[in-house]
## 1
Amino acid sequence: MNLSEAIYVRKSVRNFIMEPISAKILEDIGNFYQEIPRLFPSIETELGIIDNSHGQQRLRGFFGVKAPYYLALYSEKNDKYQMNAGYILEELCLYLTAKGLGSCFMGSAVVRGSATMRGNKELVLMVAFGKSRSAHTRPQHEAKRLSLKELCVYKETPKEWELQVLEAARLAPSSHNSQPWRFVVYANRIHIFSKKGHMERSKKLGELNFGILFAHIMIVAEELWLDLDLIRLEDISQKTFSNNQYILSAVLKS
């Protein structure tokens, strides 16, 4: 299974077997993190892996999950750093899925005693992971997501590659399964919007959600050999929309 295939079957796992994972797999996770293309390459990040295979760690905060291991992502606090973090962490979660491991984003929960800062980088989010007690995947049709008909406006008949990218985007997980994204498809471009007020209600979770979404888009674009750019188009950003807020556009290079 590769990352693109993992998009269609990954699910959040909250019940883990509390046993160690091989040192080789943990090393591979760290090496994969180094290879992930950043959404914003100028933002420095750092990854920590916390061993809880003996159950010695305690959690604090909301949406904590007891697991044998936790990923802890630290980042500089630059503009869009949470979005960049969501992008990196979703790629890591898909990698774990492909390796037969389950994972779950932990919301505001953290491991007690874990560092909140590493140098000039702050802890953004933790992800629980390890061997799942049950299946770590689910069939695509069981994903509880809105349909493309509910999420998209087509200004012209969509091309096959656009439908494939949109399906991967549709399956992106989001906080509380809020699915805040909406899409407008026109002229080899997918314009990406947020539901009005989503970013304002929780800037951190809002940006994390869209980072996860962009990871799905770019992974499938790479799988399809598409030269796709995520850019903010000034002619759209200057417009006012009653129900949505413009975020970025996925543009196919000519």
## 2
Amino acid sequence: MFNELRETIAAYKARDPAARSSLEILLLYPGIKAVRSHRKAHWCYEHNLLFLARFISQRSRHKTGIEIHPGAKIGRRLVIDHGMGIVIGETAEVGDDCLIYHGVTLGGTGKDKGKRHPTIGNNVLIGTGAKVLGPFKVGDNSRIAANSVVLKEVPPDCTAVGVPARIVRRGAEKVNYAAEVDQVNMTDPVADALGDVRRELGRLEKAIYEKENKSK
């Protein structure tokens, strides 16, 4: 337990430039409090102490503004930046070394039974206000841009951008989010395509204008 706590504090220091000391992170950061409470709630959930599990979860939600269902599975060294408004559903799974910003939802898409929430791989960044909805996987080393709405699987080493989110493939390049945590400066393939269309229209308009002037 103490090794896991030390690892998590080190992860916060690496990812949050505002983090000044281990004591500050341990006592004042809502994300680390929410995950610690979740470990207790999840233990109760696994041992069929469902009312107690929900009680711990809701108490933590009231204190931190972060709602993690007791049934969710959370990996090691999760960093939650600010955290207010985060919702993680019952069958959601979050891998190791992930970074989640405030306002994120890992939710379902309806009232289906069984697995209905996303599985987040290792070393994944999920930007502010992003919604990941459905029982699919977000692959290792992927990034979800701020305010994106992800409704289908994201392959490993990719970026999802937009509403609904579209994929920008990045090949096998690995990203160390301790060093790179930019959640907004990401390429939008639709915006790039529209830019190409605008440039082509400009070229055609210029060609038509020149042709008309020559014929006068």
